C-alpha cells in the first residue's frame, strides 16, 4: 500500500510529495494532465512573495512580517484568517534554501517588474522551470508520478481517507478503466474550478442585462482545473470556506487564448492612463495603489461592466514605462479616431477623456512612488499618476476578465488537515488553491499564491508523514515545517 498519496501536480502538490518523501514515506503523486501540461497553474507563475528582515541574495532592503501582513490585510479587506496568513508569511522567509536543494534557482527582478525587487523572489526560468525541477527531484527520490490520472472520487470512513478512484486515459474514445488506489494518508492539492464553465455559470449567474458574465471570462491558467475533486469533497460534507465568485482574476488582453495564456497576457499600463467600458465611461480609480498590489482587482471590475469588456487608454508619454503586451495595441492620432477603431460611442468617449484631462492636478510624476499627481472634480478620482492623455499617438488595449484560480475551497488549520463538522481528519490534508480561500477571502497581491502553496504544501507533506509515525528531518533541528 502507498504511504502518502498526493493528488495534484502543481507547486503545492510537489512540495507535499517531496516533504513526505524526505520524512521516509512511500509517496505516489497523481497528475490529471498529460506530462507535457504538468504543473497546473504553477507553470505560469514567476515569483514568490518573501518576508525578510535584511537584504537576502535576490531581495533588496527588507520586507518585515507586519508590512507583509498589512499588504495582505489591505487587498483582502480583512477577509483572511490571520493565524494561517501569518504562518504563510513566516514560512516564506525560510523556504528558499529548501527550494534550492530541489533544483529551483532564483534571479533578481527584471526591470519591467515594477516595485517588487524588495518583496518578491523571481524563479529563474519562471514557473515551468520550478515545476520541472521539482518533478526531477521527485523522480530522483523515488516518488511515483502518474500522469493522465484524474481522481473521480474519494473514499472516506468517518473523516478518514481510505482510497481514491482514478480514471485512466481514454481508450479509442471510451472512458479508461477506473483504478482504486489505497493509501495510509492523502494530500489534496488539485486546484480550483476555474476551468469548469458550467460551475462558473452557476456561481456568477445572470446579471441585470440578462448576460452570463462568466461566458466572457478567459482562463489564464490550466484547462485541467475542472474542480472535480473539490465538488466531490463538498458533496461529502467537508467544511468549506470562500465565496465561489471570488478568485484571482486579472484584466488581461481580450485577444488572449481561452486557456493557458499565463502572465504574458496581462496588461500592465492601467495605472498609467484610464480604463473605460464599452460605453466610453471610466468606472474605477486607476491610480489607487502600486500595480502589484492592485492588478488582481481589475478582472472583477471588468467582469462587472457591460459585456465584460474594458479598454486601457494611454498616450505616447507612457510608452516604455510598462512591460509591453504580447499583442500590439490599437493606435490613433486623435481621440475621435481611436473611439472609431474601438467601436466606442465617440462623443461619450472623447468627453470622458477631456473631463479627465481637465481634472488632472499634475505634480511630480513618479511611477515608482505614490506620487502627487491626482484628479480633482471628476468621478471616479484617480489618486496617483494622473497626467492628461493628450500626446498622440494614443494607444488602447482591450480587456477581458482572466481567471487564474478560484477561492472556494476546504477549511483547514495550522496542520493543513481537512475538517468535517469542525473536526480535523487524522489522515487527509489539503494544500494550494484548494485551501487558499482560508488566506485569500478576496483580492490578491503578487506572489502570495506561491507563498500559500509552498507553505501549506510543505506542512501537508510533513503532517501526512507524521500521521504514519514518520518524522521529517527538519523537526530534529527545531525547524519543524509541520507547524511553522
Compile the SSE list and pairings.
Elements: E1 2-7, H1 11-22, E2 27-30, E3 47-49, H2 65-76, H3 82-91, H4 96-101, E4 106-107, E5 120-123, H5 126-140, E6 144-146, E7 150-157, E8 160-167, E9 178-188, H6 197-204, E10 218-219, H7 228-235, E11 240-241, E12 247-253, E13 274-277, H8 291-294, H9 298-303, E14 310-314, E15 330-332, H10 335-342, H11 346-359, E16 360-361, E17 374-375, E18 394-406, E19 409-410, E20 417-420, E21 423-430, H12 448-466
Parallel strand pairs: 1-2, 1-9, 2-6, 9-21, 10-18
Antiparallel strand pairs: 3-5, 4-5, 7-8, 8-9, 11-19, 12-18, 13-14, 14-18, 15-18, 16-17, 20-21
Helix pairs in contact: 1-5, 1-12, 2-3, 3-12, 10-11
Q: What's the quick description here?
A:
This protein is of the alpha+beta class and 484 residues long. It contains twelve helices and 21 strands.
Give a written overview of the molecule.
- The strands form five sheets. Strands 1, 2, 6, 7, 8, 9, 20 and 21 form an eight-stranded mixed beta sheet that branches.
- The chain is an alpha+beta fold and 484 residues long.
- 25% of the residues lie in helices and 21% in strands.
- A hairpin with a 2-residue loop joins strand 20 and strand 21.
- The two termini are 29 Å apart.
- It is globular, with a radius of gyration of 23 Å.
- The chain has two domains: 270 residues, FAD/NAD(P)-binding domain, CATH 3.50.50.60; 149 residues, Flavocytochrome C3, Chain A, domain 1 (Alpha-Beta Complex), CATH 3.90.700.
- The chain contains twelve helices and 21 strands.
- The model has no long low-confidence stretch (mean pLDDT 94).
Amino acid at each position: 500500500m502507498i504511504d502518502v498519496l498526493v493528488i495534484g501536480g502543481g507547486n503545492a502538490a510537489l512540495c507535499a510529495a517531496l516533504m513526505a518523501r524526505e520524512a521516509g514515506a512511500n509517496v505516489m503523486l497523481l497528475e490529471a494532465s498529460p506530462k507535457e501540461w504538468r504543473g497546473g497553474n504553477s507553470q505560469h507563475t514567476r515569483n514568490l512573495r518573501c518576508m525578510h528582515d535584511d537584504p537576502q541574495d535576490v531581495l533588496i532592503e527588507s520586507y518585515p512580517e507586519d508590512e507583509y501582513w498589512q499588504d495582505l490585510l489591505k487587498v483582502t479587506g480583512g477577509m483572511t484568517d490571520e493565524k494561517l496568513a501569518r504562518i504563510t508569511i513566516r514560512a516564506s522567509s525560510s523556504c528558499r534554501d529548501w527550494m534550492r536543494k530541489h533544483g529551483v534557482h532564483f534571479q533578481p527582478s527584471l526591470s519591467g517588474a515594477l516595485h517588487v525587487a524588495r518583496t518578491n523572489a523571481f524563479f529563474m526560468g519562471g514557473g515551468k522551470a520550478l515545476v520541472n525541477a521539482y518533478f526531477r527531484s521527485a523522480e530522483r527520490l523515488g516518488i511515483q508520478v502518474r500522469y493522465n490520472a484524474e481522481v473521480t472520487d474519494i473514499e472516506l470512513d468517518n473523516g478518514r481517507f481510505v482510497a481514491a478512484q482514478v480514471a485512466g486515459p481514454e481508450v479509442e474514445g471510451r472512458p479508461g478503466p477506473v483504478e482504486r488506489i489505497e493509501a495510509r494518508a492523502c494530500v489534496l492539492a488539485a486546484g480550483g474550478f476555474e476551468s469548469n464553465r458550467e460551475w462558473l455559470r452557476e456561481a456568477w449567474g445572470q446579471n441585470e442585462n440578462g448576460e452570463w458574465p462568466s461566458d466572457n471570462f478567459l482562463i489564464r491558467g490550466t484547462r485541467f482545473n475542472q474542480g472535480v475533486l473539490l465538488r466531490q469533497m463538498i458533496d461529502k460534507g467537508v467544511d468549506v470556506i470562500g465565496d465561489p465568485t471570488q478568485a484571482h482574476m486579472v484584466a488581461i488582453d481580450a485577444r488572449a487564448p481561452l486557456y493557458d495564456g499565463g502572465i504574458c497576457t496581462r496588461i500592465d499600463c492601467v495605472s498609467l492612463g484610464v480604463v473605460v467600458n464599452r460605453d466610453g465611461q471610466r468606472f474605477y480609480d486607476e491610480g489607487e495603489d502600486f500595480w502589484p498590489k492592485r492588478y488582481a482587482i481589475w478582472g472583477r471590475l471588468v467582469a462587472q461592466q457591460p459585456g465584460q469588456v474594458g479598454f486601457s487608454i494611454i498616450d505616447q508619454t507612457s510608452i516604455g514605462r510598462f512591460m509591453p503586451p504580447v499583442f500590439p495595441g490599437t493606435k490613433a492620432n486623435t481621440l475621435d479616431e481611436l473611439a472609431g477603431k474601438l467601436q466606442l460611442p465617440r462623443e461619450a468617449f472623447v468627453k470622458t477623456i477631456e473631463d479627465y484631462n481637465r481634472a488632472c492636478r499634475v505634480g511630480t510624476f513618479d511611477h515608482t512612488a505614490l506620487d502627487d499627481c491626482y484628479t480633482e472634480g471628476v468621478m471616479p478620482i484617480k489618486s496617483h499618476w494622473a497626467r492628461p492623455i493628450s500626446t498622440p499617438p494614443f494607444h488602447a488595449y482591450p480587456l477581458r476578465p482572466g481567471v487564474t484560480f478560484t477561492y472556494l475551497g476546504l477549511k483547514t488549520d495550522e496542520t493543513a488537515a481537512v475538517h468535517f463538522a469542525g473536526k480535523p481528519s487524522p489522515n487527509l490534508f489539503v494544500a494550494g488553491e484548494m485551501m487558499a480561500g482560508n488566506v485569500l477571502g478576496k483580492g490578491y497581491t503578487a506572489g502570495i499564491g506561491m507563498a500559500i502553496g509552498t507553505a501549506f504544501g510543505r506542512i501537508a507533506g510533513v503532517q501526512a508523514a507524521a500521521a504514519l509515525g514518520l518524522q521529517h528531518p527538519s523537526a530534529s533541528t527545531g525547524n519543524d515545517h509541520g507547524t511553522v
